[in-house]
Sequence to fold (325 residues):
Amino acid sequence: MFDWLQHLADWLIYSTFNISAHSHLGEALNFFVYDTLKILILLFLITFLMGIVNSYFPIDRIKSFLSRNKLYGGEYVAASTFGAITPFCSCSSVPLFIGFVKGGIPLGVTFAFLITSPLVNEVAIAIFLGMFGLKTTLVYIISGILLGVISGVILSKMNLEPLLTEWVHNVWKQAKAEQEAFAAEKTTFVQRLPSIGREAFGIVKSVVLYVLIGIAIGAAMHGYVPEGFFEQYIGKDTWYAVPLAVMLGVPMYANAAGIIPLIQVFVAKGIPIGTSLAFMMAVVGLSIPEATLLKKVMSTKLVLIFLGVVTVCIMISGYLFNLIL
Fold:
């Protein structure tokens, strides 16, 4: 879908600026250009789509439907499963997260999506099948979805809505006001598009600085942190190997497809597969760039709570993987 962006980044960095593709600087700059453009485009498209949805479906009704007890947790499973089939890394998931928040979807349900989306995707599943077989792949898929569901449920019980930033509350108010205006004026779909487009552009403009900072951090890590650096620290089969793997995985930044070949190397060198998978989940689901982007919609306290819950769940999964596989 975004192959043309990759070609554009390659042309700009490697051809126009004549920076070697094999240098740390070349890798970092290429990563920065590609991910920045991809996330800004995604953010605009998703926000624009959510603006269309919000203009026709009352925000309060959507929120009420997804919050009904009769769903018995089905909304979390649905959000987590949706996250599993969307091929986004942790930073690319943030635009959808903002779109969900803008639509008034309950925070716990939104978190279920945000957590699962970078952990499980179809490319990673295909690679897992080829490298580790069906059993490990099924454990990977199910655990990723359950991780999102469990974390979402836990976070939903903590009454975290007041910890969202004022920007989010203003977005909610603006979306509801525009929805009421559309209803009162009985405007057509075509007549609503300019207003929806302006709002989407405004949201992109308000978060672009966070995107640039977050991706710059990720690009530096991607280009300059050597992958083999961490193997010596998580190769020991000790009780602290899993939490140490998670802590060492956070500074790195990659999507699941990009990190799985490294996991195969870990396993081949004798590192337990649960420890290896915990490292992978930390890399793709607990990135520092993601936390930077989330600062636009969450207070620092909420970001830390979110990352803390996910960290604990990943550690538990790592220990379970080591017992099962």
